Amino acid sequence: xxxxxxxxPRTKPQANAGSYRALIRRRQLLLIGLGLLLLAxxxxxxxxxxxxxxxxxxxxxxxxxxxASPQARIVMWEIRLPVALMALVxxxxxxxxxxxxxxxxxxxxxxxxxxxxxAAASFGAALGLAFGVQLLPQAWAVLGEYLVPxxxxxxxxxxxxxxxxxxxxxxxxxxxLVLLGIALVFTFNALLALVQFFASEQAVAAVVFWxxxxxxxxxxxxxxxTSAALLLALPLFARQAWALTALRLGDDKAASFGVAVQRLRxxxxxxxxxxxxxxxxxxxxxxxxxxxxPHIARMxxxxxxxxxxxxxxxxxxxxxxxxxxxxxxLLPGAIVPIGIVTSLIGLPFFIFLILRSGKRPC
Amino acid sequence: xxxxxxxxxxxSYGAKxxxxxxxxxxxxxxxxxAVIGPNAAGKSTLFKRMAGLLxxxxxxxxxxSRRGQQAIVYLPQDNSASPALTxxxxxxxxxxxxxxxxxxxxxxxxLIDETLASLGIAELAFRQLGELSGGQRQLAxxxxxxxxxxxxxxxxxxxxxxxxRRHLQVLALLRELAHQRGLLIxxxxxxxxxxxxxxxxxxxxxxxxHCACGPSKTVICASMLREIYQLSARVEPCSQGSLQVIVDxxx
Lengths: 362, 251
Fold this sequence. Notes:
The complex is a heterodimer of chains A (362) and B (251). Chain A has 362 residues and is an all-alpha fold. Chain A has helices spanning 16-47, 55-63, 70-104, 117-131, 147-167, 174-198, 201-211, 220-239, 241-247, 251-256, 261-283, 289-301, 305-329, 338-359. Chain A has 14 helices and no strands. Chain B is an alpha/beta fold and 251 residues long. Chain B is built from 8 helices and 13 strands. In chain B, strands 7-8-9-5-10-11 form a 6-stranded mixed beta sheet, sandwiched between helices. A 3-stranded antiparallel beta sheet of chain B has the order 4-1-6, with no helix packed on it. A two-stranded antiparallel ribbon of chain B has the order 2-3. Chains A and B meet through helix 1, helix 9 and helix 10 of A and strand 7, helix 2, helix 3 and helix 5 of B.
């Protein structure tokens, strides 16, 4: 064979760098668009409720509280603002947790809710709520009312550890992991039912209402703690953006790039536990945001984590903020617990993902 | 000049020993080395051991390299993952590993453009990895290794999904890269005729053990084929003069 014909058909260097820069600009614009949608949804959330406020009144109460009516000021600052902000922070935290679980476990159906991390956190928190049990050593008792979220964190961590350990077993495939997640959800829900069985009537009512998930348990200190968990996790994820993206090419490929795969996976699951536990402990179980948010982000922007992380945050926050609005509109005069709203919206999407994942990899 | 020598290399997965006693003479930059052997001979394990992904006994003596272990770049066999990334992004990803910086420089983009052009896949740049054929995926994976500026390349069956024409073109490209850039390239390969035709040296493994290492035209011979592959075969020059393996039957 002639040597000439053996050469690969070398193509002219195209203006791919220019096209790449254009792609980046489009993604940045998309993120800005999502941010604007989120802002609109946030303002709508603030204006909606038993007393309806127009946009002008909302903005006046927020930006010039002295000029707003005392009623609007109090409703806005004391009641609606912590709730609306909690919707953003919890949505963002759960979506980021789901995004990173899907990344490190290489499983499109992974999320804190589907793999039992939320259920584990619920069980841990219920132990504290119903019996005052604390899972951390006595020295932590000084933290008082925050022992409940810490209980949730310990149980979420335990569940993540179990998932991690089992995902490393030979032959563990994505489907195995989802089945394992279902088993964990059932286990922790059964344990939660056991807690309810033995708890006092008053404690049962508290646990039941809280498992439905409601943003109306939000307060400024709880918002601060959940935000702190998110702010702690974000820079750590951001620093590992290239390594996390590489993980999606497979463990071997990522390792060949120099990524310490097992260490990164452990770090991420630890942070995911933190991100999932505090929202669950403060506002109860809110399902599907952690599953749906990352998928919408992925469809919009791809899996380059430099864009996937902010897009997941924005999508999760937007879903929960819109769900919050919806929870006030579904039944006139009543606010439906937000966990019910997200489950009703998320379930069809979850079924769609299951059917889609059988056809081609996500 | 770059030189690499394996001295009694071994590796294990947990308690199970997968590789032992692999030796080689000093292999020089500019050479293309075939790593051959039956399935499960330990070829991938050897590459992982050389890339520092597995630990084990023995020593890998790399001389004449300024970057040490980092100069050794490994391309695993499995390129089937299909994340929502374009070819361009997957190559950028390889380029940015080890960097905490999110910004991408003009030099990095130019390097990617040049690499895509050299492999003839510039038009695939913005296709999703999941949309590519097996062969296109392998070319994209080779591009991912080249942008990491390797001095030693370990390619685990990089041509297994390519059609015959692309298979020959990629082998010719690898030989050209080795010769022109002074790279030392190891390639795990099953096609012994192509190993004879394109590679300078051949290392033979069987059941995780070293069997032979030396010039391809010496190592690939009837006795090796009988011992390692249990085949009755001859190695003879064809009408064009180059050597080829002719299999007569099972030994």
